């Protein structure tokens, strides 16, 4: 069970609020500093303690970014409230431990700082998998691939983000025959701070396009890969707030921006695990597909719905393969087929162990997810993969883990491709 990260929003009484500092993405905007912020791990032993903890948290204006059935809750605690929170928890006899002493240090050490210009001269692009790259490097790589391998790669601009960045899907194919092949869809970067997700999506693109040993994967299957579905959020998480999750659209509440793209898809939109509060990290938006990112993505997928047989969305963290439905603990009639394929895929992993099961049951009910929507339009195999780790670093997985995670994951695609190849378009 992934631990639960609760953002302790320090109210104006306590001055600095990390999310309140996230107004305009402009020259004047200050990056959010997590200097002195701690992550506390709290174990609740009973419903009574759970209730008390909720009350304490609410007293300080807390927002839940995740709720699940875990007994462990994680709080991001601002320096100004550490002392008072300690007193409150001790009074309530709730045990806690300090998991991260200074979040700023962990964030700072999480990514490599090396300059990629020498790599660029050697290879024609700036991508590698030893650090988390900015969007310019990722998009530069996609353009490089499209111009270097025109017979294998098509770069499709499917729309524009709220802040006018292009939304790219890479189609990877082998022109061996003119028949329409069954296809796999993979997306990354729905949630901005889950950096391992675009890293894996770009790694998969590289393996499929540039590694001749993987050519067989293109014989009977086409691939549509969108490495960064939420580019505005992704850039914002690099430049201003490492823990940003949502899009960057302006909401009715001027000081709170963004919609959770994974609550904005049009199946059971607005149900359990979603919020009507624009300041919430699970804000569902004003309507299904209100966000240009989810709108463009869903339109593109709908246009290819007869050929896309498998929908895979990459998130972090928790090491789990989640199967619809996620809006509630409800099982599709072909759940056993979906379970069997997921189990066989994760059996390929040798370094990391993944749990497999119903999304709402093993995480928490959350409606408006992309996985549920994909399933609802008839894509038989639809999964959310929550990548590494299991909570030691969570979203802040250090860059040294990128290659191990990617290398472990890639062989699972053999299993998916083999299944998809058998399906009729
Ligand atoms: O809450 C989410 O959107 C996903 N977890 S994350 O930590 N990456 O934010 C889980 C989504 C599972 N799918 C559905 N509930 N539909
Ligand atoms: Zn996510």
TrEMBL record:
It comes from the Eukaryota. Pfam families: Peptidase_M14 (PF00246), Propep_M14 (PF02244). Keywords: Carboxypeptidase, Disulfide bond, Hydrolase, Metal-binding, Metalloprotease, Protease, Signal, Zinc. Residues 1-21 form the signal peptide. This is Peptidase M14 domain-containing protein. Its cofactor is Zn(2+). The active site is at residue 386. Residues 131-420 form the Peptidase M14 domain. Belongs to the peptidase M14 family.
């Amino acid at each position: 069970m992934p631990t639960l990260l609760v953002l302790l929003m320090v109210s104006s009484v306590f001055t600095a609020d990390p999310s309140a500092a996230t107004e305009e993405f402009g020259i004047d905007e200050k990056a959010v500093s997590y200097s002195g912020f701690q992550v506390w791990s709290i174990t609740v032993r009973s419903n009574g303690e759970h209730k008390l903890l909720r009350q304490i948290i609410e007293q300080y204006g807390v927002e839940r970014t995740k709720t699940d059935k875990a007994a462990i809750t994680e709080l991001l605690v601002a320096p100004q409230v550490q002392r008072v929170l300690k007193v409150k928890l001790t009074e309530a006899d709730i045990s806690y431990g300090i998991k991260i002493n200074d979040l700023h240090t962990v964030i700072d050490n999480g990514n490599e700082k090396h300059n990629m210009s020498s790599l660029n001269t050697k290879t024609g692009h700036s991508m590698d998998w030893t650090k988390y790259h900015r969007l310019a490097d990722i998009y530069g790589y996609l353009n490089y691939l499209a111009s270097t391998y025109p017979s294998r790669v098509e770069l499709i601009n499917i729309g524009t983000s709220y802040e006018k960045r292009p939304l790219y899907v890479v189609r990877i194919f082998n022109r061996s025959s003119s028949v329409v092949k069954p296809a796999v869809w993979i997306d990354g970067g729905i949630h901005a701070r889950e950096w391992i997700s675009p890293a894996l999506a770009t790694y998969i693109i590289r393996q499929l396009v540039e590694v001749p040993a993987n050519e067989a994967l293109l014989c009977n299957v086409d691939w549509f890969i969108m490495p960064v579905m939420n580019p505005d959020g992704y850039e914002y998480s690099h430049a201003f707030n490492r823990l940003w999750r949502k899009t960057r659209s302006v909401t009715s509440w001027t000081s709170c921006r963004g919609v959770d793209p994974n609550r904005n898809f049009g199946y059971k939109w607005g149900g359990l695990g979603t919020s009507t509060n624009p300041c919430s990290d699970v804000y569902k938006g004003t309507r299904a597909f209100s966000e240009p990112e989810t709108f463009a993505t869903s339109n593109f997928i709908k246009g290819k719905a007869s050929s896309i047989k498998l929908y895979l969305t990459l998130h972090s963290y928790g090491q789990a393969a989640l199967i619809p439905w996620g809006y509630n603990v409800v099982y599709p009639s072909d759940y056993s087929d979906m379970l069997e394929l997921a189990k066989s895929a994760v059996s390929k992993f040798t370094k990391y162990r993944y749990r497999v099961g119903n999304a709402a049951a093993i995480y928490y009910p959350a409606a408006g997810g992309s996985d549920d929507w994909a399933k609802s339009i008839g894509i038989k195999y639809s999964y959310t993969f929550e990548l590494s780790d299991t909570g030691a670093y969570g979203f802040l997985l250090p860059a040294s883990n990128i290659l191990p995670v990617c290398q472990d994951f890639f062989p699972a695609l053999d299993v998916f491709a083999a299944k998809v190849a058998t399906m009729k378009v």
